[in-house]
Amino acid sequence: MTTLKIGVKAPNFKAINQDENQVSLSDFKGKKLVLFFYPKASTPGCTAEACNLSNNYERFVANGYAVLGVSADSAKRQSNFKIKYNLPYDLLADEEKTVINAYGVWGPKKFMGREYDGIHRTTFIIDEKGIIEDIIAKVKTKDHTNQILD
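^ that's the sequence the OP posted. Answer follows.
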């Protein structure tokens, strides 16, 4: 879905997190970043993905990664999601879809024969210099950590 390619500079962004604090790509300069886009907080697939990353958070930290989730949910909904599942990383509330559109993960989807526009579950691995190192478009929600770190 995304037109971004491995080896290009990741689009800069500014958005609020679950606590309504501003977060931008430049906050992660000098760190590797796992930037994962998910359709909706607290839904089964998104919960499986977020919890898989959370359960393996120490592995990410040990490998020099920060983790950041993004969806079009409100800050309140992101906050509830983070608290309910004790997620150790920030979740961006991108209600205006600024970050979502910059990364090209919004578009037509099909579910149970119905077509609609939504977020395509996609993860971008961004290196210390802000370059896209990898793009995972076929996310395995229950085994996403191994897709990223293996």
